[in-house]
Amino acid sequence: MKTVLAIALLVSVVVLAGAGTVSQVSHERTVNQAVDAALAEHSALEAITVRIEYGVLSAFTGPETVTVVASYTGEGDPPSGVAADIEERLDERTDRQVDVQVRFQDYQTA
User: In this structure, which of 8, 40, 70, 77 has its CB flanked by the most CB atoms within 10 Å?
Assistant: First the structure.
């Protein structure tokens, strides 16, 4: 009887962990798609890295911070409102509270 309960418990843990992983991978894909879509509206911007940091409780209960490092090869200052655009896209696509930060790396091209 103990063996059956132990096996049932182990299977439950594995199933829950698998479901959590699938959910997390799907969310990360959604974040990356939202970032790519927002940056695609600006010809001089390209994502270098996208990092998701989760709140204290867990990856499923948030809040979370999405930090984007983008290359900027345009003239003058980088466009404003990129972080707000990404955050708006994430609000439309997910049910999670997300704060977005964007940092720009300037590059000279020749």
Answer: 70
Phi, psi of 102 (to 5 degrees): -125, 130
Two structure tokens written together for 101: 């930060």
Contact between 60 and 26 (Cβ < 8 Å): no
Cβ atoms of 68 and 34 closer than 8 Å: no
d(CA 103, CA 43): 17
Question: What token pair was written down for 109?
Answer: 């091209």
pLDDT tens readout for residues 71-108:
988 888 899 999 999 999 999 988 888 899 999 987 66
Q: What is the rounded CA–CA span in Å between residue 87 and residue 31? A: 10
The angle subtended at Cα 87 by Cα 86 and Cα 93, nearest 5°, is 90
Tokens of 9: 């418990």
